[in-house]
Amino acid sequence: MAVVYPDDVLKRVRALELGQQQLFTSINTKPAFNRVESGPLVVGRVGTRQITLNPDGALNPEIWLDPDGTGTNPTRVVAESGTGQAVLKLYSGTSGGVQSSLTLDAGQVSMTSGAGSFAYWGHDESRFGYNDSTSGNWFRFGPNICRHNGAWDDFASLGPNTGLLWGSITIGGSSTSATVGYPSVMASNMGPIVSLRNGGGVSMAWCITASSASSYSVAWATSVSVALYQCAFRH
Predict the structure, then answer these.
(1) Are the CB atoms for 188 and 160 separated by under 8 Å?
(2) For the segment 87-139, what is each residue's pLDDT rounded down to a tens digit?
(3) Reported pTM
(4) How many CA atoms lie within 13 A of 228 on its CB side?
């Protein structure tokens, strides 16, 4: 009796061959690298510029940007836990034990140089200036107020482009006038604001008698030593 094959046997063979080919192709194909379960992911060769995702020892999501590829002093981008939201921090490399940083939090931004200089923009105030463990000199701006914390430089050591010259001097003896010179000829006209404290403890009349870009003169009615306090502004 003759053997009868179904009409579609060749189609079935071709389907089996195609399935086998797809199976071997699938076995020899690596899965997509869209997830790294453990360990850091490094982009770039050692000794060249590198980007490292979640480096060893990182406690939070972190990225290292390393222009030298040594991994010893990178710029770091870190996401830390805040109050209900992540806080983004950017750290520079370290030089001489100093590291600068930038922090972006909800409603506030801050920057520090690592050596005392800082700037802060917050919910209800802004501050910028210099503040370290031994001294502070900075401005604070609030909704309706501006304050300065610190001290002004003495006028005798400032250059011709200085906008404000603060200071005080004592004029002893029995003088009735004095000319106070600026540290140099200032770059434009000056407006001196002057106050006198009478060393003799009595009231007296006094006034500014002359003003220029290099000095101003003051005269007072009583022959006595005085302490002179000044703020001269350039305009």
Answers:
(1) no
(2) 999 999 888 888 999 999 988 999 999 889 999 999 899 999 999 888 899 99
(3) 0.67
(4) 28
Q: How many whole angstroms separate alpha carbon 222 and alpha carbon 202?
A: 9
pLDDT of residue 66: 92
In this predicted model, what pLDDT tens digit does every residue of 149-182 receive, in sequence order? 998 888 777 889 999 998 888 988 788 999 999 9
Residue length, the chain? 235
Domain boundaries, the chain: 43-149, 164-234
- SS3 labels along 133-184: CCCEEEEEECCCCEEEECCCCEHHHCCCCCCEEEEEEEECCCCCEEEEECCC
Helix (H, G, I), strand (E, B) or coil at 8: coil
Q: Is 125 exposed, middle or buried (0-12, 13-18, 19+ CB in 10 A)?
A: middle
> What whole-number distance in Å separates Cα of residue 67 and Cα of residue 57?
20
Question: What span, in angstroms and rounded, lies between the C-alpha atoms of 102 and 90?
Answer: 5
Separation in Å, CA 176 to CA 172, 198, 222: 10, 11, 6
Give dist(CA 223, CA 227) in Å, integer. 13
Which residues have CB under 8 Å from 181's CB, separation 6+?
Answer: 214, 215
Cα→Cα distances 197→20, 178, 230, Å: 104, 14, 11
**How far is it, in rounded angstroms, from Cα 53 to Cα 44?**
12
**Half-sphere exposure for 148 (CA within 13 Å, toward CB):** 4
